[in-house]
Amino acid sequence: MPSNLVIVRHGQSTWNEKNLFTGWVDVDLTPLGEKEARGAGEQIKAAGIRFDAMHTSLLTRAVRTAHLALEAAGQVFLPVNRTWRLNERHYGSLQGKDKVEMVKQFGADQVQLWRRSYDVPPPPVTVDHEHHPANDARYRLLAPDALPTSECLKDVVARVLPWWHDAVVPQLRAGLDVLVVAHGNSLRALIKHLEGIGDANIVELNVPTGMPRLYRFNPDLTLAEKPRYLDEAAAKAGADAVKAQTGAK
């Protein structure tokens, strides 16, 4: 029997609603985000998928999305692994800034480069900045040089893949079904690896909130079928909404 992996981006957060760069800033879900999280669980339940393990980031919006989705799916008993490696991309000094205002200030091309390019990070934060991870107690046990001050997607790939190989691959090889609830860019990094998307093409990939995406693997971890969202039409609409966040054409 193939093993299953389902990935879900958290539901709408309060800073998604305000159209702010969020990154590692810990914000909660909006009522719509809670609804999206439950909807993800309902899709999973309707598809008849039952999991053996779940992974989330350390950020509240992913943790709560995971819980609400599992509650709706009737699977709140699942063992959970939380890791900083699934955190959203650190947006450096852009965190907390309005995306449209940044376009007005720096121009659409520059913001698009910071936001979507594979290997160009935004300007970093300093260690005394409120958004430096060293100022958040949840990261106090990590090596100081592991804490990002700004990241591009290439950096996120570099921190996500060790978690994938060490934590999830053994579970899938054992025939377990796995749920991952994370963020737009940590999931883009994972999708890039799983689907073999090139550095240039990954720029165009947008991950919608609250939409489960299913991967079925053969025992050798080749894909048994083409990956798909459980609700393709709704996922496309959600991805288009993510693409339009800066207001740039």
Structure in words:
There is one protein chain. With 249 residues, the chain is α/β, with parallel strands linked by helices. The protein has one domain (3-243): Rossmann fold (3-Layer(aba) Sandwich), CATH 3.40.50.1240. The protein has eight helices and six strands. It has helices spanning 14-17, 31-47, 60-73, 99-106, 108-116, 153-173, 184-195, 232-243, and strands spanning 3-9, 53-56, 80-82, 178-182, 213-217, 228-229. Strands 3-2-4-1-5-6 form a six-stranded mixed beta sheet. Helix 3 links the parallel strand 2 (53-56) and strand 3. The chain is globular, with a radius of gyration of 17 Å. The termini are far apart. 38% of the residues are buried.
Describe the structure concisely.
The chain has 249 residues and is of the alpha/beta class. The protein is built from 8 helices and 6 strands.
* CATH homology superfamily: Phosphoglycerate mutase-like
Across the major sheet, the strand order is: 3-2-4-1-5-6
Percent of residues in helices comes to: 25-40%
Major sheet description: 6 strands, mixed
Instruction: Assign the structural class, choosing from mainly alpha, mainly beta, alpha/beta, alpha+beta, or little secondary structure.
Output: alpha/beta
Rg, nearest Å: 17 Å
Alpha plus pi helix count? 8
Parts with pLDDT < 50 across at least 5 consecutive residues: none
CATH topology: Rossmann fold
Number of domains: 1
Distance between the termini: 45 Å
Hey, roughly how much beta strand do the residues contain? 5-15%
- Mean pLDDT across all residues, rounded? 95
For the secondary structure, the number of strands is 6
Task: Please give the CATH class.
Answer: Alpha Beta
